[in-house]
Amino acid sequence: MQLLHYEQDRKSAVQRTRLSVLVTSMVALLIPCHAVLVPWLDDDPFEEALIGVNDDSWNNGILSNTLPLHPSEVTEDNRSLDQKGNVPQYVIDNSPLIHLYSEEKYWPADIKDFVKKFQLRDHTGENIIKESLHDLSDLQESYSVELQNGTYDRIPSEGTYMTSLDDFSKDPKWLLGEQPAYGTGHIKKAPAVLFVVDKGNGWVDAFWFYFYPFNWGPYIMGSGPWGNHVGDWEHSLVRFYKGEPRYLWMSAHGGGTAYKFEAIEKIKRLRRIDGKLTNEAIKKPVIFSARGTHAHYASVGQHSHDVPFFFMPLSDFTDRGPLWDPSLNFYAYTVTVGETITPCGVEETEMGLDWLSFKGSWGDKQLTAKDPRQKWCPFQWKYIDGPRGPLFKNMERVSLCQRFKWWNFWKGCPARRYIKRGEGLDSEKNDLVGDNCGILLYNIRPKWLRGIFRFVTWRGSVCFIMDYFTG
């Protein structure tokens, strides 16, 4: 958890804010909607936590007592979790349900079983461990390696790769994962991984990590798939304030989308306390996992893949396929004062914590151009590197967003107030709900004029700007 980067982000935010104040004061008398011209004024609810390091109100304790903190700044006086290291009941009550795609091929899996199918190798293909991996304890931060002169040296795990013992291109059984049980949504052999992170001042972040053995990439104009990789970590974040869910963020291709919690669709489920079913009905948020890529979205349909506005040739697809309830089976950890990670159960304790410090890739190294399985298009290779583990997903962040896309140069992370609807034939939308930026056009009369505006703004940069800044 890199405090240095955090301090740099704060200083950068201070500079952005000072500039925004100057620009805003110039256009305030002329332009009613400043955020359109000053993108970082985009209602990011936690921007103040980044700019506060040099802000008088922060130094006076006004903002620092109300906003979430970097975990390294959480003390015994401002902590939000108890000292027992238990998972709060409100985290379980508001855990996301996931609609997996109806034609999904690569389902969730258990990381404990997954690692047994690999050897650990460096970037040259040399074995770091002579034998195959036996369990998670073989994943460590560094390794003792024998040198040519007979001596031993410690090398970091960064730059190492979990390399498949089988030919993954032939879809061995372990690569396919496990489907959820009909009705309950339980997957016995695919525990999720939960990190409950104390952000102080009443704020708690619940990170739900979902592991899939394989990422099946998208098609581009009928060609592909591209960007496939062994191992796939996805996650969602539910941010709580004093036990109440306030925001939900969901990952998608290294980026993601933040929502106000009340905006997300909910499904009624019977409440569970300590794993036992009760007669009390509660509403839990539901998100949708895209076919193959497992990127998360808040609605059904066709979604733009890794681009700032809708682009039909490169898309993700979601629908109301099998429902997965990760809260029925998960490994849990709490992150509290001093960034201390504490296992929350016997099984987690037996697994140890070393595997969390593993900096290598949870999957094979990108295949070389000479490999007959490898292909290339102007945008991507067919097989790329596997991902890194949960501790490298910026769980210490104060912003809702994990990181920012290349086009988000202002580094804003507003929480949407309306669900961003999918496109295409499978989408679910109507005039009462709206269709993304088009919702702003409903008041235009006559209809033929509205149609002209739709034609001009639809699926382009103008639509993206309208949609982004209005939530």
From TrEMBL:
<feature type="transmembrane region" description="Helical">
    <location>
        <begin position="21"/>
        <end position="41"/>
    </location>
</feature>
<keyword id="KW-1133">Transmembrane helix</keyword>
<protein>
    <recommendedName>
        <fullName>VPS62-like protein</fullName>
    </recommendedName>
</protein>
<dbReference type="InterPro" id="IPR009291">
    <property type="entry name" value="Vps62"/>
</dbReference>
<dbReference type="Pfam" id="PF06101">
    <property type="entry name" value="Vps62"/>
</dbReference>
<keyword id="KW-0812">Transmembrane</keyword>
<dbReference type="InterPro" id="IPR053102">
    <property type="entry name" value="VPS_Associated"/>
</dbReference>
<keyword id="KW-0472">Membrane</keyword>
